[in-house]
Write a structure and sequence with these properties.
The complex is a heterotrimer of chains A (about 375), B (about 90) and C (about 325). By secondary structure, chain B is α+β, with helices and mostly antiparallel strands. Chain B is about 30% helix and about 35% strand. Classes of the chains: A alpha/beta (about 375), B alpha+beta (about 90), C alpha+beta (about 325). Chains B and C meet through β3 of B and α8 of C.
Chain lengths: ~375, ~90, ~325
């Protein structure tokens, strides 16, 4: 597969592994946070940490939109389907995430709620057109990569004057999250640099990270999605750390430019505006970190069309997703990990989402001893 | 960040749609987020939308940077005297 | 005859008898079935018998490379074949939904008949019931099969021991991707066909060449990963795989990339996993590749001594990871 297979080449991997080995200073450790859940997944899936020298560590970040969605919002989505009888369209990732009382979309569906998995917002629009007598709600989640498709859908719904299509918007922003992680008083002991997200950056460009790199004096390398990209990015981060630099570098040049996809950004700005604050699972309340639908698109805002009940939402006690998401704890340090909490029986989002650190670690890496767990 | 895959444009359709292909797998996707799309372009596809065009030049450049490691090692060996004298 | 199934077709009266005659017997007819008795009569085979049953609820009913009819024959034949048995007879129970088009039903039954003929089995008894509209998914089929185990054949997970080799008979993920390609909301056009097929011919060749095969299993729902994990747990061993050796067709690989799925977790309906003594692996591989259903067979790993019973894999990239037993059906992901 063009532009995929070449970036998984074993010979190149060995080359890069050798170069990384020669680049690291033997008397120090390097801790790099891969912000993006997709990177966590790739690292584990390809066993990238096996090719790293022992003093290079990956710290898993909160870039998993499924993991950071607060329980309350999931409960609200389930309620939309169950109490308001809407057709709730959702991406596959959300289906098994447990909400309050271990209730999930897939369980609600089994109990009769009309919940449909879609691949794209285009599918949700199609469902709305084909079911003019039913209310259709699209459960929108995701970082900046996934937001433009939602914006396009809302605009299309407006152009077609659809009266039965709304969006339950939970889109969140990456740079705000990165800053929040760095600000957290009880965050990870040490982060020496960041592997920046691949496809968020394809949309927003590399420049939004410049302020954070400058302010916190941490290098950021925008890394591609394939394992060779991750390795080359690690090499670049090591170079910066060794030289005491704190810049934003772009490894993923085949897709990411400094200013990104301006058309997509304009569409997003047209349809959405910043929320003052938004509750993130694990990070607490983060200012200016999430989007809501603008007033002139109010007709497509599920939050305005359907009143949410003010039920109490509860996380499972002892679930350490919040700490894991901040990189403050490793999955294995959660009391529930592997014992009560498994992919079969997930207690929190980090175990259900295939991007969650707990799931990645359990599914791909639990044979490793704790000290070399990435 | 999210799962996105490079696919080649097979045909361009009206209303901001296109058919793209990965190997022989074809899919109709939206090009509403891009300005100009031509047959043969490689696009990054995420949840049914093209997010960006791929730069073939940059891809080739990245691969060559990754391959450089081998050459660099030979040079290092020469400098440190590990490699047999060439000159 | 009317166009669609209605409740009288299940009523036990004349209309039902006509359906049985005009659709089922017409295509499935054989000496035993045609006797018209309440049960199929056959002589008891000398030796050990094996019996298996399978329910089929696949949606959509027709997919590239097959349909529920063919699947219902191949599925049960393969269960018997995985024991090393020669399949002989099947029975088939149909649950039909009111409103289901008769032409489609006939297509399905015709397909079953072809599959049965190719497999050399006869369908000797059947049953039909009709449920109200909305209470079924068009057609559900349950098939039960009986087969005879040749003398000396002992194929079972209890024979699996450390050091044996693990082989697969061909490319993985074909069936699941072919089905996904038709399902609503995940439409893409591919030229990927389901691999649904009866494997007893291949098995017969394998057992003849390598009588001390330890075990066979077909990786259906849950794919390669589920089946290997089942085996590892049941036999109390570990399994290590070499990703580079696992055959995946480029189209299936591409479809999986698009959807964020792993070919190892996707169903197969015409493939088998074989575990045999390592000294016999090459011979077994050769015999598999000589058969049309085993042309892409490969040695993909070995059985190891692992108290945690994990299935691990050396990735194409050079690292190692676990091949995990999925909680449920793998769902396409965006992240």
């Amino acid at each position: 597969m063009r532009y995929i297979t070449e970036f998984r080449d074993r010979a190149l991997a060995e080359n890069l592994a050798g170069r990384i080995r020669r680049a690291v200073q033997p008397d120090r450790a390097y801790h790099f946070m891969e912000f993006c859940g997709g990177h966590t997944h790739a690292i584990f899936r390809y066993g990238v940490q096996d090719l790293m020298p022992p003093n290079v560590h990956f710290v898993h970040g909160p870039g998993c939109p499924v993991c950071v969605l607060p329980v309350r919002r999931l409960d609200d989505a389930i309620e939309l389907a169950e109490k308001h009888g809407v057709i709730l369209c959702t991406y596959g990732d959300m289906m098994r995430v447990p909400g309050t009382g271990r209730r999930s979309l897939i369980k609600a569906k089994a109990d009769g709620a009309d919940i449909r998995m879609v691949y794209s917002t285009l599918d949700a629009l199609k469902i709305a057109r084909e079911n003019p007598d039913r209310q259709v709600v699209f459960f929108a989640i995701g970082f900046e990569t996934t937001t433009p498709p939602t914006a396009v859908a809302i605009k299309m719904a407006q152009a077609e004057r659809l009266t039965n299509f709304t969006v339950f918007c939970n889109h969140v922003l990456t740079p705000a999250a990165i800053e929040h992680v760095l600000d957290a008083p009880d965050g990870p002991a040490q982060i020496d640099g960041f592997l920046g997200p691949s496809h968020v950056s394809a949309v927003i460009g590399s420049h939004p990270y410049e302020a954070a790199a400058q302010k916190y004096q941490k290098p950021v390398v925008i890394a591609g999605f394939e394992p060779l990209d991750v390795m080359q990015s690690v090499l670049m981060l090591i170079g910066q750390v060794n030289a005491g630099r704190a810049e934003v570098e772009n490894q993923y040049t085949r897709v990411v430019t400094r200013f990104g996809n301006r058309k997509a950004q304009a569409l997003v700005a047209e349809v959405f505006t910043l929320r003052d604050r938004f509750e993130w699972r694990g990070l607490g309340s983060v200012p200016q970190s999430a989007l809501q639908i603008r007033d002139n698109f109010a007709d497509f805002d599920a939050e305005r069309r359907f009143a949410a009940s003010q039920k109490q939402s509860r996380e499972v006690k002892s679930c350490e997703c919040p700490a894991v998401l901040r990189g403050a704890k490793k999955p294995i340090e959660c009391k529930l990990f592997g014992a009560v909490c498994t992919p079969d029986n997930p207690m929190g989002a980090c175990m259900v989402s295939s991007e969650g650190a707990c799931a990645a670690y359990f599914s791909y890496g639990r044979q490793r001893a704790p000290k070399d767990a990435a | 960040m999210c799962l996105a895959i490079p696919a080649k444009v097979l045909s361009v359709e009206p209303d901001d749609m296109a058919v793209v292909t990965v190997e022989n797998v074809r899919k109709r996707i939206s090009t509403a987020l891009l300005d100009v799309v031509a047959v043969g372009d490689y696009l990054l596809i995420h949840v049914g939308y093209a997010l960006h065009k791929l730069s073939e030049e940059e891809a080739a450049h990245t691969l060559s940077l990754m391959a450089e490691a081998g050459i660099l090692q030979e040079e290092l060996d020469e400098i440190s005297g590990d490699a047999p004298c060439v000159t | 005859m009317t166009d669609c199934i209605n409740m009288t077709h299940g009523g036990g009266g004349r209309v039902m008898a006509e359906l049985i005659r005009d659709v089922f017997h017409k295509h499935l007819g054989n000496r035993i079935l045609d006797r018209g008795d309440d049960a199929g009569l056959f002589a008891v085979q000398k030796g050990r018998l094996v019996m298996s049953t399978d329910g089929h609820v696949i949606a959509p009913l027709f997919f590239p490379g097959g349909d529920i009819g063919a699947l219902s024959v191949h599925g049960t034949v393969n269960d018997l074949a995985m024991m090393g048995a020669k399949p002989l007879y099947l029975t088939a129970g149909f649950i039909l939904e009111e409103g289901y088009p008769l032409t489609d039903l006939e297509r399905i039954v015709w397909s079953m008949a072809s599959a049965a003929r190719e497999a050399g089995v006869q369908i000797i008894s059947g049953d039909t019931k009709v449920v109200e509209r909305g209470k079924g998914d068009g057609v559900f089929i349950t098939t039960t099969g009986i087969g005879v185990l040749p003398e000396g054949v002992d194929i079972s997970v209890s024979n699996v021991t450390v050091g044996q080799s693990v082989l697969v008979s061909g490319t993985i993920g074909d069936h699941g991707v072919a089905v996904l390609s038709k399902r609503e909301n995940l439409e893409f056009e591919t030229e990927i066909y389901s691999d649904t097929a009866s494997l007893h011919g291949l098995v017969a060749d394998m057992v003849a060449a390598v009588p001390d095969i330890a075990m066979l299993r077909d990786p259906t729902r849950g794919g390669l990963s589920a089946t290997l994990n089942e085996i590892a747990t049941a036999a109390g061993v570990g399994i290590t795989l070499d990703e580079v050796q696992i055959p995946v067709s480029p189209d299936v690989a591409a479809a999986c990339e698009l959807l964020g799925l792993d070919p190892q977790n996707i169903a197969n309906e015409g493939k088998l996993i074989a575990i045999c003594p390592s000294g016999k692996a090459d011979a077994l591989l050769a015999i598999m590749r000589a058969h049309p259903l085993g042309q892409n067979a490969a040695i993909i790993g070995k059985v190891t001594d692992d108290p945690s019973h994990l299935v691990q894999m050396k990735t194409a990239f050079g690292g190692t990871r676990i091949v995990d037993w999925l909680a449920g059906e793998q769902l396409p992901r965006i992240c």
